[in-house]
Design brief:
Elements: E1 3-7, H1 12-23, E2 27-32, E3 56-60, H2 66-76, E4 80-83, H3 90-95, H4 97-122, E5 127-133, H5 155-174, E6 177-183, E7 186-187, H6 196-208, E8 215-217, E9 223-224, E10 227-228, H7 229-241, E11 247-250, E12 256-257, H8 258-269, E13 277-279, H9 297-302, H10 311-334
Parallel strand pairs: 1-2, 1-4, 2-3, 4-5, 5-6, 6-11, 7-10, 8-13
Antiparallel strand pairs: 9-12
The structure holds NADP nicotinamide-adenine-dinucleotide phosphate and guanosine-5'-diphosphate-alpha-D-mannose.
Length: 347
């Protein structure tokens, strides 16, 4: 049985990747950061009772703590490491720049050093996946490939560029199997509620159920290449099964504006978004990434990867999920329970 270690297992991608690896017979170990509220909602269905034997194991840990990462590497002895942990919100990174750099850039370096030393001491040849991002291309125009220059436009993107180059350097300097996946935006019903797609579908569900009236958004003109997270975590795994470590772009090759996303989602939700959406400058970024559309020919040819879920099916699954969630909220409200306002500081 192969053993995988995932940082960021409680996030959108971590939950889909854990499902995928468990279904493929792996023992899966996840690093969970300690928070004052429960943060395991997305994986609770995989981990019903910690007292029942399971192939899923959770450990407290943080990308801020090198000692803990080293310890986990030594006791878990993973065959594959997936580094998905991050402060992953671009707008938030402008406010929390230093913290974002610490977790996203230096956190990756901490995990890579633990990985390098564990590889040497154990004599094994484990494999490392780095979650790089299309945000690294920033202002470089589409279509973006592995050869497109990076032009990061946010502290998050700068940190991801550093983490990417740390990964490439560890591959070359120490002859380690480190692959970097430059993934374009990928969404799902489990997407965090402050990212634009989920913010939209969550609001449409609530508007349809009469729980909300307004949706405040920023720039509707930016374009993104949106795929489904379940397809994209498969590409992560395929990279680690490939014969050599490399850098791969993973994308659908189609791009839509935020406004077009609103159009399609509203059609499914049967809500006229123009009656409900208002502009709020707080959701603008000091420097925006206008247009992302990836060319993933390399991954398609060398890995045999291709997305299976198209844009409309992705949007529909998110709208369906959020209408159901709003229906549950309405039932609770009808039974006299307080329905909380959705969203965090940027929600
Ligand atoms: P996400 O939903 O925001 O999940 C991020 C994960 O990182 C969560 O499990 C979070 O824990 C964890 N984390 C945050 N700070 C941490 C710390 N200090 N130490 C350890 N773990 C920490 O992000 P995602 O969408 O699944 O994305 C996964 C990775 O791919 C991220 O690195 C992201 O930057 C990158 N990426 C995402 C996309 C995309 O479109 N989704 C595209 C390209 C690259 P909590 O649950 O406790 O917050
Ligand atoms: N979040 C958010 N909230 N974005 C908005 C809003 C709003 O109210 N209104 C407009 N937008 C626009 C943003 O300005 C951006 O151009 C676009 O919607 C997408 O924003 P996000 O959904 O926050 O995603 P992102 O593209 O900035 O970053 C995501 O994708 C990256 C890959 O390209 C994140 O998942 C990153 O972690 C990931 O690396």
């Amino acid at each position: 049985m192969k053993t995988a270690l995932i940082s960021g297992i409680t996030g959108q991608d971590g939950s889909y990747l854990a499902e995928f690896l468990l279904a493929n017979g792996y023992a899966v170990h996840g690093i969970v950061r300690r928070t004052s509220s429960f943060n395991t909602d997305r994986i609770d269905h995989l981990y019903a009772d910690p007292h029942v034997p399971s192939r899923l194991h959770l450990h407290y840990g943080d990308l801020a703590s090198a000692a803990r990462l080293r310890h986990l590497m030594e006791v878990i002895q993973p065959d594959e490491i997936y580094n998905l942990g991050a402060q992953s919100h671009v707008r938030v990174s402008f406010d929390e720049a230093e913290y974002t750099a610490d977790v996203v850039a230096t956190g990756t370096l901490r995990l890579l050093e633990a990985f390098r030393d564990y590889s040497k001491q154990s004599g094994s040849q484990p494999r490392f996946y780095q979650a790089s991002s299309s945000e690294m291309f920033g202002a470089s125009p589409p279509p973006q490939t592995e050869n497109t220059p990076f032009y990061p436009r946010s502290p998050y993107a700068c940190s991801k560029v550093a983490a990417h180059w740390y990964s490439v350097n560890f591959r070359e300097a120490y002859n380690l199997f480190v692959s970097s996946g430059i993934l374009f935006n990928h969404e799902s019903p489990r997407r965090g509620e402050t990212f634009v797609t989920r913010k939209i579908t969550r609001a449409l569900g609530r508007i349809r159920m009469g729980l909300q009236d307004k949706l405040y958004l920023g720039n509707l003109d930016s374009r993104r290449d949106w795929g489904h997270a379940a397809d994209f975590v498969r590409a992560m795994w395929m990279m680690l099964q490939h014969s050599v470590p490399e850098t791969f772009v993973v994308a659908t090759g189609e791009s839509y504006s935020v406004r077009e996303f609103l159009d399609v989602a509203s059609e499914y939700a049967e809500v006229d978004w123009r009656k409900h959406v208002e502009f709020d400058a707080r959701y603008l970024r000091p420097t925006e990434v206008d247009s992302l559309c990836g060319d993933s020919s390399k991954a398609r040819q060398l890995l045999g990867w291709k997305p299976e879920i198209g844009f409309r099916d992705l949007v529909k699954s998110m709208v369906d999920g959020d209408i159901e969630l709003a229906r549950q909220e309405l039932t609770l409200a009808g039974a006299g329970h307080t329905v909380s306002r959705r969203g965090g500081v940027y929600g």
